[in-house]
Structure formats: structure tokens, C-alpha cells
Specification:
By secondary structure, this protein is α/β, with parallel strands linked by helices. It folds into two domains: 149 residues, 3-Layer(aba) Sandwich (Rossmann fold); 93 residues, no CATH class. It is built from twelve helices and eight strands. Strands 3-2-1-4-5-6-7-8 form an eight-stranded mixed beta sheet, with helices on both faces. Helix 5 links the parallel strand 5 and strand 6. Helix 8 packs across helix 9. It is globular. The two termini are 31 Å apart. The chain binds NADP nicotinamide-adenine-dinucleotide phosphate. The site of NADP nicotinamide-adenine-dinucleotide phosphate has 24 residues, from helix 1 and helix 4.
Length: 258
């Protein structure tokens, strides 16, 4: 594989860093020159990462092209490029459909959507792939887990999960802020919350039940303090509001695709 990137921003930097931290990292990488600072930094860190003179030079030298520009500029950038029929185009753009990208990257016939997350830089997390593709399953499988689907609706629904990270950290920060207001030292509060929640994140590994409510119930001892928080937040509609937000993100993702 000769791997090229159109768009060298936060996500490209994470994918390249993850790739080059793996022992089997022999895939050469050619980056588009924007963002110049990020591209130069990656090229200075890894011997087989180079920066092309322009976007077309990336296409001309590579067989697999990852597209990682913002959706607002993607149409203009891609329609100015000459793709080949043998290019494998992998769009990392969260909100453009595979059909949109296929139209813009014609005559390239093989078009895959992939949704890696920034933690791929540490080879953690999971990448969504649509449709299933053995080469991308192998590539992203070395950088974390791969969840592949052949159903565009399922891909779009799964994508909604990626909208929940900031709210998760706000939840943790609410606990942190409360501890600080009650005189707990910064480092101790952070250490306790981070360590406990890391352990909780492993709880699903020990069960075959695909849902999560049984874990909530396991911790919600009847009459206990976990049951109290769960009951009070449920009564105030916090989880209904959260589910409503998931629905509106889903509609936004669907509306952004033609
Ligand atoms: N970051 C995430 O967590 C994440 C997760 C999943 C999917 N995505 C998707 O990945 C894509 C990129 O996201 P990002 O966070 O990496 O954005 P970003 O940091 O803003 O990177 C976008 C890059 O595109 C470059 N660019 C702009 N115009 C260009 C042109 N004409 N030719 C070549 N490159 C050009 C920008 O360069 P300049 O700085 O020079 O303008 C920048 O380096 C988005 O479509 C997003 O939906 C991101």
C-alpha cells in the first residue's frame, strides 16, 4: 500500500502517529502540504512520511487516498483532483455519504467510509468502516478495533456515538467540580475519578449481556446511594433529554448527506 492523505489536520496526525507507533509500520505515507506545520512535524518524526508539493501529487504517487478535510471544503477540493480508476478512496469525513464521495472521486471505483477517532494515535478505540473492506479492516485493525457494516443506515446510527464524548467529560467534570467545592485537593479528586471510571469502563468485558442496564442495576443497591442518583436524574428527565439529543444528532447527520 502507498498511502496518501488529502488534508493533514488533527485526524490525519492521529492516524499517522498510530500507524507509525506500531511495530509493523512499513506503509509509506505521503501527506498533502496543508496544514504545513502538522505535515512538516510528521515528516520530521518518521523517515517514510513525506510531504507532497500539492494534492494532485499525492494522488499521482499513491494507491490508497485517505480524505481528511473538513466537509465544507471537500467538494471544492476533490472536484479539482484527477482520480484514477484503481485508486482506493477512503473518506474520513464524518458527514458526507459514500455516494457523495464516490461522485467526487470518479472514476475511482473503490470507495470506503472510515470513522477513526483521535485516540487512534495511541492505537485505542474503534474505527467504523462502511462497507466492509478487507484492506481497511487490516489497516485500522492494527490501530485498534474495527466495527464494519454493509448497511449505511447502521453506519450513520453508529456514528451518533461519537457525538457523546464531550458530554461524558462534562459528567466527570461535574463530579470533579463538586469534590473541589467540598475541599478535596485537585490531584486527589482527579486521580480518584480517573481511576474509578477507567475500572468501570472495563465492566462490560466481563458480561455477555449486550445492554448496559444490568450493570446499572448491579451498582444500584436497593435503597442505596447509587439508586438515589439514578432515580433522581431519571425523574428530572436527564436521560430522556440525552436520548433526544442523540436523535437530533442523527437527523443532522442524515440531513448533511445528499
Ligand atoms: N478530529 C476528529 O475527532 C474527527 C473524527 C472523525 C472524523 N473527522 C473528520 O475528519 C475530517 C478532518 O478533521 P480534522 O479534525 O482533522 O480537521 P482539521 O484539523 O481542521 O484538518 C483539516 C485539514 O484540511 C486542510 N485543508 C484545508 N484546505 C485544504 C486544501 N485545499 N487541500 C488540502 N488540505 C486542505 C487544513 O489545512 P489548513 O490548516 O492549512 O487549512 C487542515 O490541515 C473532517 O471531515 C471530520 O469530519 C474528524
Amino acid at each position: 500500500m502507498k498511502l496518501g492523505f488529502i488534508g493533514t489536520g488533527a485526524l490525519t496526525s492521529a492516524v499517522v502517529s498510530g500507524l507509525k507507533s506500531h511495530t509493523d509500520n512499513s506503509v509509506p505515507v505521503l501527506l498533502s502540504p496543508r496544514n504545513q506545520e502538522i505535515a512538516d512535524d510528521l515528516a520530521s518524526r518518521y523517515a517514510d512520511v513525506r510531504v507532497a508539493t500539492d494534492n494532485q501529487a499525492v494522488l499521482d504517487a499513491c494507491d490508497t487516498i485517505m480524505v481528511a478535510v473538513r466537509p465544507q471544503v471537500a467538494r471544492e477540493i476533490l472536484s479539482a483532483l484527477r482520480f484514477r480508476p484503481d485508486h482506493h478512496v477512503v473518506s474520513l469525513i464524518a458527514t458526507l455519504s459514500r455516494e457523495d464521495i464516490a461522485g467526487l472521486a470518479s472514476p475511482a471505483a473503490r470507495v470506503t467510509k472510515a470513522l477513526p477517532m483521535p485516540m487512534i494515535a495511541r492505537r485505542q478505540g474503534a474505527t467504523l468502516i462502511y462497507p466492509s473492506d478487507p484492506d481497511m479492516a487490516d489497516f485500522f485493525g492494527r490501530l485498534g478495533k474495527v466495527i464494519a457494516t454493509d448497511d449505511a443506515d447502521e453506519f450513520n446510527a453508529l456514528s451518533v456515538v461519537t457525538a457523546t464524548f464531550a458530554a461524558y467529560f462534562k459528567y466527570l467534570d461535574t463530579v470533579y467540580g463538586w469534590l473541589k467545592d467540598h475541599g478535596v485537593a485537585d490531584a486527589k479528586a482527579n486521580d480518584y475519578i480517573a481511576t474509578i471510571y477507567k475500572a468501570l469502563a472495563h465492566a462490560p468485558d466481563a458480561t455477555s449481556d449486550p445492554g448496559f442496564m444490568h450493570l446499572a442495576e448491579e451498582y444500584a443497591t436497593r435503597g442505596g446511594i447509587n439508586e438515589q442518583v439514578l432515580r433522581e436524574l431519571t425523574a428530572r428527565g436527564m436521560f430522556d433529554a440525552f436520548a433526544e439529543s442523540l436523535g437530533s444528532v442523527h437527523l443532522r447527520i442524515l440531513a448533511s448527506q445528499s
